[in-house]
Amino acid sequence: MKKHKITRSLATATLLLGVGVVAPIATAGPAAAGGYGCNGTLIDTLPHYAYTVEGGGRVATTYIYWDGTYNCVVNVKQGSTYGVSTRMELSIGTSTELQGDPGHFKYYAGPVKIYAKGKCIKTEATGWGTNGHELYQDSTGWMHCS
After folding, report:
1. Residue of 13, 71, 114, 122 with fewest CB within 10 Å of its CB?
2. Which CA distances in Å does 128 have to 76, 85, 141?
């Protein structure tokens, strides 16, 4: 009886150890790998989908970080425009300040950082395709009030 209990305990410990080793690898995607220049903890992700009548595919994701004093955002391309220089605009604002990063980027816009201690933030992201047509424009309401 003790042998089965020990075997079961070892199997459980091995499984838990395996999850502990695998989980950080599985969650350590691009947003977790240094935050693209943002410090702090990843607190939100906002997906962006291309405009189409049928519903477009996901073309970018905005990642929002918080370090206890500053919020920071980065908008990362996905799909056909990833690695291709296209126009992007990313902004983050509070009730008293607005910061942005417009330009042509291959992989991502940002990081854009703003002092937000005791404030709420809004973000906006816009991306254009290789043909110069706007692919998406998304903005949030007030959120992540600290």
Report:
1. 13
2. 13, 10, 22
pLDDT digits (tens, 9 = 90+) for 18-38: 333 333 323 334 444 456 999
pLDDT digits (tens, 9 = 90+) for 64-122: 999 999 999 999 999 889 999 999 999 999 999 999 999 999 999 999 999 999 999 99
